[in-house]
Design brief:
By secondary structure, this protein is of the alpha/beta class. The chain is built from eight helices and 18 strands.
Length: 370
């Protein structure tokens, strides 16, 4: 470390510290590094109090346990780095500032990653750092206390929800997708929002929490997406590995709860779903009394990478039973897309009677006796 403790480094452009001793150098940032563009610090500490890096473009802090600055000090560093384009902070518990008033405007930032920073730190940073809507953001949090109330959790997520609402405003006239994913173990969720306009940077949120919280998180973010009123081009709802109704504490399916906030949705994509989840989805989307069905504007439903044979048999049987003439009762749907997997040819012919447009992509068609 001593070789970096000189008073000046006028030509230094990149600097990376990795797994050095906890004791930070005392003069490193007291000197001058006017051309430093990239600074990466992993598993070690540095002095931050007088850090001024006016040319800095990329900053990464990962697994830093010692020499960690307070949030306010960290923010002041960024106020002196207007050209910053990439900022990553992972597994680094910044010291919370009791009453930080520092506001930072990073108009050049294209990528922001904040992961596992400790309770309250992510919220404090997001309320103090102002970035363009085109910035790609990745956030990760862990709520590992099962006694933690939903109100406390949602307060921590509030700045992310507000950014989601802002992004929805930007993409009001462009196609966008809200992806809601559950971990197979049930112990985590991922929420992603992305669109086709260049003004909208993708937003990804990973949350580790007890399984009973999953649907609540989905509904929470959907509520922010629907705050602006009717969307001229409603987002596609992409649901990955949806939880079964039988595993839910509240007996309200995810589809019904999302409808409460995004009723104008006209396209839904369901991926990696179990037989029970798919049949639940059909039952909820197309009840016997269609006057009370959710998403009345729904025109396209996509099923991706699922076991198609079982739900196809179930659906054809369900629609046939509802038709007293012994024929099939068509679904109020314009297009059904099936992507990946396999299905028997006779089931394909049966589904064509239910929907005007049946689209198959990368689907293996199995013939009888094949």
């Amino acid at each position: 470390m001593n070789r970096f403790a000189g008073p000046s480094a006028p030509l230094l452009e990149e600097l990376r510290f990795d797994h050095l001793l906890p004791a930070p150098p005392t003069i490193l940032f007291n000197g001058s590094a006017p051309m430093l563009r990239i600074l990466e610090i992993r598993s070690c500490g540095v002095q931050w109090s007088t850090l001024v890096l006016s040319k800095l473009e990329e900053l990464a802090l990962m697994d830093v346990k010692h020499g960690v600055p307070e949030v306010d000090t960290f923010l002041k560093v960024h106020s002196n780095s207007p050209q910053l384009t990439r900022l990553r902070v992972q597994n680094t518990h910044l010291s919370k500032s009791p009453s930080s008033q520092t506001q930072v405007f990073l108009s050049c930032l294209s990528f922001l990653e904040l992961e596992y920073l400790g309770r309250g730190i992510l919220k404090q940073l997001l309320e103090s750092i102002h970035i363009p809507t085109s910035t790609q953001c990745c956030f990760s949090l862990a709520f590992d206390d099962y006694q933690l109330s939903s109100i406390v959790k949602y307060v921590q997520l509030e700045p992310i929800g507000k950014r989601l609402a802002r992004l929805a405003d930007v993409s009001n006239e462009a196609k966008s997708t809200l992806t809601l994913s559950s971990e197979p173990s049930g112990w985590g969720v991922r929420v992603t929002y992305e669109g086709e306009t260049h003004q909208l940077g993708a937003l990804t949120v990973d949350i580790e929490a007890f399984p009973r919280s999953n649907i609540g998180f989905f509904e929470y973010f959907a509520s922010y997406l629907g705050q602006g009123g009717p969307n001229l081009v409603p987002p596609i709802l992409h649901i990955v590995n949806p939880p079964d109704l039988t595993n839910s504490d509240n007996q309200l399916e995810i589809i019904q709860r999302l409808h409460n906030h995004l009723p104008d949705t006209d396209e839904i994509l369901i991926e990696d779903a179990s037989f029970g989840s798919i049949t639940d989805a059909f039952t909820t989307l197309f009840p016997s009394n269609l006057a009370h069905r959710p998403f009345p504007r729904l025109s396209t439903l996509t099923l991706r990478e699922s076991m198609h044979e079982g739900w196809a048999i179930w659906l054809l049987g369900r629609q046939k039973r509802q038709d007293k003439r012994g024929d099939v009762d068509p679904l109020p749907l314009n297009t059904l897309k099936i992507e990946g997997g396999a299905i028997r040819a006779e089931k394909v012919e049966g589904l064509k009677k239910l929907i005007p447009n049946l689209a198959l992509d990368r689907v293996e068609i199995r013939r009888r006796n094949a």
